[in-house]
Amino acid sequence: MSSGINASTARRATTLRDVAELAGVSVATVSKVMNNRAGISDGTRATVEAAAETLQFRPNPMAQSLLAGRTNTVGLLTNDLIGRFSLPILMGAEDALGAGSLSVFLCDARGDAIREQHHLNALLNRRVDGLIVVADSAAPRPSLGRDLPVPVVYAYGASFDDDDMSVVTDSRQAGRVGVEHLLSVGRTRIAYVGGDRHFAAARQRAEGAGSALAAAGLEFAIPPLFGPWSERWGRQATRMLIERGTDIDAVMCGSDQIARGVMDALAAAGRAVPGDIAVLGHDNWEIFAAEATPPLTTIDMNFQEVGRFAAQLLSEAMAGNPRPGQHVVDSRVVVRESTF
């Protein structure tokens, strides 16, 4: 039996036809074996695989994906220009997607609905296999719709449509673990300085903190204070606490920015952190938390896990197994020096 290989064949890339000639079967049969299609006998499959091994034939990934009706690409559509929330989410998603040999297209809509629609159309024109939409806040957002030709997963900010797939953080759970940490280091007279009360996440974080205090037979030293998500508000709220003579040994904050302002005002008033008053932030935004004086203990919302989970859901949906609804990732406390 002739091998069907000549000098020219040896020098160029091996093709399906070369494998078919060596195995004594049709090109169509080789294609079915390489793409693991049904309808091929075990004997024929073994013969083709042996021929492919002899010729060191490796299937072309692009050709395989086209045969399967897929491009092995995913679109990541973000609305967070700064990257405060989106970057760790995207890192987690890319880690998970990269493990499955998927390429990623990143588009930043910058919070603009028209730009978002433009990027959506561009990604669909590229025939991406799926989309992950990353929000710039925990607030729910409008759905891109149910008529898209590919599955979509919403990360951080859930879709208003409960039939969509969303991965979110639990703000109440975050508030609970924050208070549990403060209690574990002996703090019992806790004030809460939160962000804008119009944000559900701001209210829910305070509610979670209050429920943890209640479970320990305690309550806030003063009703929670709400204001802008800023250092200025943190300083202002702390001055209010000091002027009122509120007896506190810890301040839990709705964001790391607020916490930085709280620590500035405490230092100006001669209060030591954490010696006199412990301070706990929220977000684990490195530029505010790790570089604070002292370094800030804070609640990390596990954004990389949000990204990984979103990518996992998307992969399952692309394989025909969607899991609609909201999926929750728990937060954790990152301990630094502001509470010890």
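[next item in queue]
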Amino acid sequence: MLNTILAPIEWLVAWIMYGWHQLFTGLGLPSGSGWTWALSIVGLVVVMRAAMIPLFVKQIHASRRMQLIQPEIQKIQAKYKGKSDPESRQAMTQETMDVYKRTGTNPFSSCLPILVQSPFFFGLFRVLNGLTAISKGPHVNGGRGPIGPITQVVAHQAEQSTIFGAHLSDIFLHATTTSARVVTVLLIIAMSVSTFTTQRQLMMKNMPASALDNPFAKQQKVLLYIMPVFFAISGINFPIGVLIYWSVTNVWSMLQQFYVIRRMPTPGSPAERALRERQQRRGRTMKELTIEGLNADTGVDGTSATDRVNRQRQQPKSKKRQKGKPATRPTEPPDPAGDGSTSA
């Protein structure tokens, strides 16, 4: 089942790598060089990430919307805090979904780039991991047929190519040379550092103070230091070619995020204040981000979205429609006799 699902992805990955390899070979690089194949993997990253730019833009807007509606979400969570009965949990979920629907926010949009990229990551892993089997040919025990343009001859060439004495298919746990282990460790360090830098940049510069003071943000801070350890543990099981792909895509994410934080920061974040100051020095007016039902400064001044919407929807009432107030009558003169009679 998994082979059937990943087969088209493997085929596409193989063609993209082979296309870049042919381009670099045409530019004069040796076809059997490990650097030519490494650059082909970099080209694969460029194609994949460029194709995902529309999804990344959607992720940016989703993330900013999620930040803006956090005060409303926190208000709902506080309302049902300590209530674990099914009715309360269902009501909290319903109110949360109503906020998402009213503001046009999709909490899953921020996960789209990762979900889309994951099959190609595994596809590359299978292509690089299968180079040895493809180079043997389908008629040899342990061998397999070609993947798109990665024929037996091309696979053998890619399998024999090296970078600093390390093959692209070398794995740290099964490496037979010191150079392969050293290259693997360096790539794991580069991958971990780039991931840490990207996440730290996001939390320190592009998140308002209100968003940092909640359980989710505290979990993110813990993950900030756990993720490099996770990459170090998992990285020793991946081929060098996959580590190159992972490191390059992390660097792409870091640079792309740096551009976004500088040009389109989250409202209320330190990056937004820095952008506002730059715009003021240039004599420009900064365009505010608004969401239907929310103002751009939601979460900064502490006013919840519900209060804002209620104030916007409240209509003035006439005196005749106001309840709880007696109708006004003409004032009668005081009774001088005190017996309830009135003077003629």
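[queue empty]
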